[in-house]
Amino acid sequence: MSTGMAAAKETKLVVKSADTSANMVVIYSTFAPETIEINTGEEVTWFNFKKPKTPMVLVSEDGLWEETTLYYGKAFSYTFEEPGTYVFTLKDNPEIKGTVMVYASELQEKDLETPSKIATAETTRATAEASSASNSGKNNKENVQNEEKMLIYSTMFSPETIEIEKGDTITWINLKRPKGPSVLVSNNGLWEDATLYYGKTFSYTFEEAGTYTFSLEAMPETKSTVIVRKK
């Protein structure tokens, strides 16, 4: 039984922009999304949200960076300086692969006669903490391990169902392609309809146990569920 309206008065929520690049890849049991397209000079950030919580080793099959260990809730960022197709995988699950397709910018297209140089590991940046896009609406300094993430794609949520404990925060990130705003709706009336532009986030802290559903205004048939357990 949902206790939605009672929770609404006690929770704190915030709409904020992501400090990291809007190009994000989330590690569950697979990569989400499996393929991402960017322009040269853009950054991709990988987040580890694999359940059960465990560290993962992110590997560049093209040797762009040294093998990088990501603990749960942590992030790793890499800036792609050269056009090309790059493959990444998980050390313990090499059959799970993802791809970054990097396209040349207009300025670089004029200089294609110059041989490309492989981007070196010097351009890598492993973040010690998850970005502020991962921070809690209840407490912006709260450890990211107390927070779950949910991504909005063009026709779906990922994951579709998520289980948390009372007091935990969920952050929705709009990665809809083609880039466009999405209106996030709480079917339990926990918040007023929230418009998320591409790369923006919305956070909500669930203070009451219950089962809550939400959807996208333009696609009400696309629903997802948050199950909040008592501690």
TrEMBL record:
Q: Which CDD domains match?
A: Cupredoxin_Fibrocystin-L_like (cd04217)
Task: Name the SUPFAM superfamilies for this protein.
Answer: Cupredoxins (SSF49503)
Task: Quote the biased-composition stretches of kind Low complexity, using this chain's numbering.
Answer: 123-138
Q: Which Pfam families match?
A: Cupredoxin_1
Q: Where is this region: Disordered?
A: 123-143
Q: Classify the source by domain of life.
A: Archaea
Span of domain EfeO-type cupredoxin-like: 16-102, 138-228
Q: What is this protein called?
A: EfeO-type cupredoxin-like domain-containing protein
Q: In which organism is this protein found?
A: Methanosarcina horonobensis HB-1 = JCM 15518
| Classification lineage | Archaea, Methanobacteriati, Methanobacteriota, Stenosarchaea group, Methanomicrobia
